[in-house]
Amino acid sequence: MPLELKNIYKVYPNGYQAISDFNLTIEDKEFIVLVGPSGCGKSTTLRMIAGLEEITHGDFIINGKRVNNLPPKDRGIAMVFQSYALYPTLTVYENMAFALDLAGFDEDVIDKRVKNTAKILGLTPYLDRLPRALSGGQRQRVALGRAIIRNAKIFLMDEPLSNLDARQRVSMRSELARIHREVGATTVYVTHDQIEAMTMASRIVCMDVGVIKQVGSPEELYFHPKNLFVAGFIGDPPMNFIVGKVENGTYISNDGFYHIDLSKFSEEQLAKINGKAITLGYRPETAVIGEEDLKGDKSEYLEMKGTVEVYEMLGDLQNVYLNVGEEKTIIKAKPEIQIVIGSEMTYFVKKTDFHFFDTNSGDAIEL
Ligand code: ADP
């Protein structure tokens, strides 16, 4: 079922404006993830979609019909919360059957649906168990089952994985993606975790203090962030930033540490950034250590350097924390590279891996 949010505002009774001019069209069967730091208005938006929170201004449309004033139960929406809210004294089977029972469905219809849903969720062996005899991940699946079984066309999920341990979260991420493919319901999913957003979303809506900063596929937000906020929020560890200005084809950082020769960029490209306060960004994973690892034309790379403050060996790679002038930088290094604390490291970043932002507006400048 497609959803449209047009010029939505939310002002709470205490006068706090939590959402400003929110515009989003969600296609049928999309998996939309609202992501952003705590307090940016994700839950408020989700609750307005559910009908649990009044929309102060704007239009909310389901399948072409304005439904601002439609009660939650009539919206065809199923909601899954962070706390599973299972009935502790009912079995898995009874928990899933509950809503259908209440709605007066025949027993054999209920039985068929419970068994089918349990199959999708891998819960068949646990149908007779009580919730307390299940793991966190299994309980979350029962909560999902209660949503799926109602054949809702729209699923809303508010941080559904946050009560799970790290390993369960990883496996539930791919489970949720699979379930979404099978069930095909339009899904709006709220999280503060950019990895959940990157791994599950068909499109990500990245928010900051009540406004949308960018909407796009995970790839778009990662490779083409439209502003400093999105660039800094998506990616782990986050993008490195240097603040400075461009003068006569040279990038000079404000602390004077970097004088980066930008003559590798064309006249046309330089014209877009010359004379401006520019924040330069590059991702930790784009740094190449050692000239022998440069790929293709070496003149495509800019040389950078910093002093190693500390490093973390993660097995598949190392995070290296560098002091560069008055700023900090993180780069990723292959595990076999010997890192020495206090030593100076030279590394290379391809010119196409740099992002340029107007420091004053925060907007990305596409070169
Ligand atoms: P998120 O889900 O992104 O963490 P919320 O939507 O819960 O953010 O909250 C957005 C902002 O609105 C926060 O600053 C929060 O304090 C405020 N807020 C939430 N509920 C209320 C309320 N009932 N009254 C006043 N302010 C609220």
Describe the structure in your own words.
With 367 residues, the protein is an alpha+beta fold. It has two domains: 3-233, P-loop containing nucleotide triphosphate hydrolases (Rossmann fold), CATH 3.40.50.300; 240-365, Nucleic acid-binding proteins (OB fold (Dihydrolipoamide Acetyltransferase, E2P)). Helices cover 25% and strands 33% of the residues. The protein is built from nine helices and 20 strands. It has a six-stranded mixed β-sheet with strand order 6-7-8-3-9-10, with helices on both faces. A six-stranded antiparallel β-sheet has the order 13-12-11-14-19-20. Strands 2-1-4-5 form a four-stranded antiparallel β-sheet, covered by helices on one side. Helix 2 packs parallel to helix 4 (136-148) and helix 3 crosses helix 4. It is elongated. 36% of the residues are buried.
Multimeric state: single chain
Q: Can you tell me the CATH class of the largest domain?
A: Alpha Beta
Distance between the termini: 39 Å
Share of β-strand residues: 25-35%
Number of helices: 9
Describe the strand arrangement of the main beta sheet, using strand numbers.
6-7-8-3-9-10
Global shape: elongated
Domains, number: 2
For CATH, the homologous superfamily of the largest domain is named as P-loop containing nucleotide triphosphate hydrolases
